[in-house]
Prior knowledge:
mainly alpha; single chain
Amino acid sequence: MDTVAADRAARAVPGVPRDDDGPVFRAPWEAQAFAMALSLHERGLFTWTEWAAALAEQIKLAQAAGDPDTGETYYQHWLATLEHLVAAKGVTTPQALHRYRDAWDHAADRTPHGKPIELTPADFE
């Protein structure tokens, strides 16, 4: 990997957080989305060519909807791409994704700030 080129590319987007060693994730969920994409690729769910095309499409849709594309929403696009691909590949359904998203929102609403969010059966009601 050309680390000089990678560093130059990361610096080209001012919204990308970094430390002395380079780009970092803003929040744990971003690292988890990144790890899920790697894991699903390793399991053969999609090729990197498919991933890149799907991610580019998600970013294009977000920009058309007004996303300023400053780098701050990048992993939201990763998550949307993951959701799209797992539904398109039949791993889950859009309905199941919405059900879990709603449950997660319910769990987050009842969780005090700074505490881990945990899903319970009641979150799905």
